[in-house]
Amino acid sequence: MHNIFKILCKIEERNDKYMINSVQETALLLANNTSNIPFSGETVRTRSANCVCGGWLNHSAGSTQYQITEAGIYEIMFNTNVTSATAGATALGIKANGELLSGTEMDYTVATANTYGNVSANRLIRICGNGSTTITVGSLATSGTTATQVPTIKNASLIIKRLG
């Protein structure tokens, strides 16, 4: 049985585009204004984005973490609709090992409670050496010096592509 998995992995490796697209479609109130977003499902996941095939990514549906296990250049794309139960600032960001990646803070000011706005961010990241990097997307406690509201997100989509 193990040999069958090896053969299937090698067949797809030739045509593999090295990517995962995870989603959180239903509205989800995060636990607090520093929580990461759990992604409940995947719309596309190539075999190379799976540890079973010795791939570059470790992720389980429902988890907030995407562990990239191989060196390379990766493109991270995220978008979601966001709101809060009260008017005020919301902020989300893409993080690597818990640190906000520059250029990925997504701010939305909720003028009327429970009114959604769309935010998105794209970023290239270089992973060096044999160490691993954990990617998460989550709420930020502040936007500048303004404390943020606890966000509700829906129709969130995260794509991680290995470019080389």
Topology diagram in text:
Blueprint: H1 2-13, E1 19-24, E2 28-29, E3 41-45, E4 57-58, E5 66-68, E6 72-84, E7 88-96, E8 99-100, E9 106-110, E10 117-127, E11 133-139, E12 142-143, E13 146-147, E14 151-162
Major beta-sheet overview: 6 strands, antiparallel
The assigned structural class equals mainly beta
CATH architecture: Sandwich
Rg calculated over all Cα atoms: 17 Å
Q: Which fold does the CATH topology refer to?
A: Jelly Rolls
List the total number of helices: 1
User: What is the helix content?
Assistant: under 10%
Describe this structure in words.
It is a single chain. With 164 residues, this protein is mainly beta. It has one domain (2-162): Jelly Rolls. The chain contains 1 helix and 14 strands. It has one helix spanning 2-13; strands spanning 19-24, 28-29, 41-45, 57-58, 66-68, 72-84, 88-96, 99-100, 106-110, 117-127, 133-139, 142-143, 146-147, 151-162. Strands 1, 2, 3, 6, 10 and 14 form a 6-stranded antiparallel beta sheet that branches. Strands 4, 5, 7, 8, 9 and 11 form a 6-stranded antiparallel beta sheet that branches. Strands 12-13 form a two-stranded antiparallel sheet. A hairpin with a 2-residue loop joins strand 7 (88-96) and strand 8. The two termini are 30 Å apart.
